[in-house]
């Protein structure tokens, strides 16, 4: 991935979204040709020269100090995810250039697999760094049946979202969920732009999905470690889930996503029904669907 180009597009997008009024600048008469701040206005807010900021926006972050980066964070009013992404891009831009490299595939250890299975009442899925399911418990597989085909390896969730038509009916808020997936991949690309598996995934999705290609070019970054998600399950219908992501520092990028429902709600009833099916030996959502 081209880190210099990513820096340029990221800073340009951030500058365009902030109006002078929002930045606390006095605006005099005359028509503005840019939707947000001018380069000289960002430079003024960050306390650097216009030439210096222009060099940074063009992707040249060599020699830029942390204090200047923090000044940019304040000037552009970045949130925590955006600030972390800016620092990641700066490290990638100033460090030694690396060619594409394969990273060891993250696997679920026997201990983590045992942990997942003991969480019988909570749907739990372990994901690797590029959001491919690396493990789950029975209820997690029942909740997301498309990700766990019976006759094949688990699917990558981003490929499922953008290349599998079933995802658009499975997620009533498909666009929100898909944009979140793009954002997560953007953050990963900032941390390690030489990751060959990530490069291959992004290249495939950008080639085959116009939505992915457009949103990837927007350089939006957000963290999505907790929140709510709606699904339209093929067996039990619509469920609203609260999710929480658990990071496993000892597992080389593996995270566990857990899902809960509000007690006493229709979603809780639906999950209880799914839980009873998942507890039955040799049962599956498709089997249940044929008898429902």
TrEMBL record:
An example Gene Ontology molecular-function term: DNA binding
Residues covered by the HTH cro/C1-type domain: 36-83
InterPro entries per UniProt: Cro/C1-type_HTH (IPR001387), Lambda_DNA-bd_dom_sf (IPR010982), MLTR_LBD (IPR041413)
Name of the protein described by the UniProt record: XRE family transcriptional regulator
């Amino acid at each position: 991935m081209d880190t210099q180009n990513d820096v340029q597009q990221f800073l340009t997008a951030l500058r365009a979204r902030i109006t002078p009024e929002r930045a606390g600048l006095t605006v005099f008469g005359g028509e503005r040709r840019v939707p947000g701040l001018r380069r000289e206005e960002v430079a003024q807010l960050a306390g650097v020269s216009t030439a210096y900021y222009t060099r940074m926006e063009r992707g040249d972050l060599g020699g830029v100090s942390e204090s200047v980066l923090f000044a940019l964070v304040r000037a552009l009013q970045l949130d925590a995810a955006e600030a972390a992404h800016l620092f990641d891009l700066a490290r990638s831009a100033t460090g030694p250039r690396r060619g594409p490299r394969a990273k060891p595939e993250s696997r679920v250890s026997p201990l983590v697999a045992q942990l997942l299975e003991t969480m019988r009442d909570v749907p739990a899925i372990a994901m690797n760094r590029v959001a491919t399911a690396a493990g789950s418990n029975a209820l997690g597989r029942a909740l997301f049946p498309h990700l766990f085909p019976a006759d094949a390896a688990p699917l990558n969730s981003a490929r499922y979202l953008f290349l599998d038509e079933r995802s658009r009916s499975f997620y009533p808020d498909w666009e929100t969920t898909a944009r979140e997936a793009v954002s997560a991949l953007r953050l990963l690309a900032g941390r390690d732009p030489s990751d060959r598996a990530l490069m291959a995934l992004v290249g495939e999705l950008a080639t085959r999905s116009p939505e992915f290609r457009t949103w990837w070019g927007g350089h939006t970054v957000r963290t999505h470690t907790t929140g709510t998600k709606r699904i339209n399950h093929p067996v039990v219908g619509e469920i609203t889930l609260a999710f929480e992501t658990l990071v496993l520092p000892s597992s080389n990028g593996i995270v566990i996503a857990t899902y809960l429902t509000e007690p006493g709600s229709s979603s809780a009833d639906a999950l209880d029904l799914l839980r009873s099916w998942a507890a039955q030996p040799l049962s599956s959502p498709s089997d249940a669907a044929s008898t429902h």
